[in-house]
User: What shape does this take?
Amino acid sequence: MNFDRRRINGPEATHELIYENSSHVKHLNERSTRKNDELRPVFIKPGLISSASGSTYIECGNTKIACAVYGPKQIKNAPYSSTGKLNVEIKHAPFSSSIRRDPVKELEATHLSSQVTQALLPSLRLENYEKMQIDLFVTIIQDDSLDFGLLANITTAAGTALASSGLEMNGLVVGATVAFKEDEMLLDPSPSEVKYAKAVMTVCTLPALTQIAHIWQAGTLDINQYKQALQITESASRNIHTLIAKTLMNETNA
Amino acid sequence: MSDVAELSSVDYFAYSVATWSTVTAVGLLGFPRLITTLLLPYEKHSTGELLPKTELNGFERFLTIQSSIALLAAAFLLLQLTGSLSSTPIRQPSPYRLPSVTFATTALVFSSVLAFYADSETIGLVGKVHCIPAAALSVWGISIMIFEIDAATYRRLRPREYLNRFLENDLRMDGRRLDEFRSTSINQENEGSIDTANGSAVVRLGNTTMIAGVKLKTALPDPNREAGYVVPNIDLNPISNSKYKPGPPSEEAQVLSSRINDVLLSSGVLNQKDLTIEQGKAVWVVYIDVVCINFDGNAFDAALIAIVAALRNTRLPVTRYDFDNDRVLANPEESTSVPLTKTIIPTSFGLFDGKLVTDLNDFEQSLAHSRLTVVINEDGTLAHMSSQGRNMADNLDDSLDLTQRAIKIARERYDAIAKLII
Assistant: This one.
């Protein structure tokens, strides 16, 4: 089933390219150039999408994400609710990963959406937006960090977009990811590092309040490592938080 | 649009009227005797002589309190209905702004006229004192109703008239001339290019931003037609504008994709015969996906320019067919460019009462009587032309004239855009 009347369809069966020498798949050992607790360069630009209430474009290494907030707007024909509703929709562009993501087969990234929603909820004051809905749309233009890293990057982008839309918030949420490779802890891991890690953990924090908003972890971990990981992600989040705060200040002053 | 609206004259009017009636009401409520005794120190006695007033009677007191409560309620209602006093943290544009101003002004006119002609012998100076601020406020209200419908309200209520005021002067809302384009940028290599795609381009037409990504795959050829596949799809993402909803492609996106597909196939930009890898065994499938990140009109031009630019920087790996395993093997080191026969550049126009307007934004596009699209080849010939909507002009001669002017503008546009594409 590869046919969708609403799209231009290609042939039924297609094959990904197979390269003759597998050495082509360059495992750029980035760690040779960056330290274990060093983030890839982060670029954040708020206010890119003109018709949205708030928006952000974020580049984190090669991961590129666009994010827009629409609303708050009134929910029509819905039963009364005393709090607002945050609706997160995440979508991968078909060309965002090395294997083409077929939009016909591709379901929305529901799991990632619910994780992002969980991470953002502590920052929002939804009780002030009764009967209203806030739409958050995310498009992943290029994915260079896999799901754990994406959760961190999307949360950071979404937090910035929500802040630039002028919503009432408790603070900015910032995400950071650590991969555990034997005894080493690798901050902001690349896809290959995630692949060979024994555990991965994404921590979303509210640096201004020194609170944790959300943790997602897979693989087995030593409790001590867990504590260490929290410290590493906390200091990384603090740095990103400073960057975002500066960017948002410049944006509002400009 | 941004929700926090700036305060306009309607808001100031609402604040002033509310303040005035609140002050009056509080005065009446708190010091009914003080006011009446200050302004009307004497009362006409049955004997005909004026005697100092001592006390309000029960009926007067009742009327005073009732009318002051009514004034307070009116002040609150006016602020609510104009949306000047917001009950939510973010101000919602109120649909009752102008009706509220009209209502308040009417009430004020009556009030001031009645106060002016009231019998000064019985109520003394109260009438004149009341008349002056009421008259001033009503004049303000009338002037708002006549002159100062703010632009945003006018635009929302009467979009076509709003736009026509600009077009009558051969100007656009953003200050452009009718045949001027928004600033256009094409990014193929540096910032914003996508490494996971085989070729990509980011095109910005004013606010409209489109990202095109090319992905290559292989497939068995169609036995009847020995040629590669080209699969263009345009996604009008909900991120790009509030009018697009999540889910399968909207009608607009479907129409756009199939129009682009038609142009690509009929103009023969890509030589599909050259997309064969091994006769009868394997051909290339060129997936071109365009994602709209920011939508502000003229999606067709932005998408097609992005596609052409993305195809320009797409590299086809050199391949060989592995007959033993029935598969295509690509050489990671060597690559060729995509078999593009030429460059095509589109230019879309809108027609407003016989006026040709280029590069419409979202607002203009929703109001255009008809649309015309011209796609120009490298040598200046026409690759494609289409028009939609009501007849372009009243008669055939005018239509031809318009078309010729459109082609001339499109040729100039070709030169400008072709320079931007590497």
In short: The first helix of chain B runs from residue 9 to 30. Residues 184-418 of chain B form a domain with the Ribosomal Protein S5; domain 2 fold (CATH 3.30.230.70).
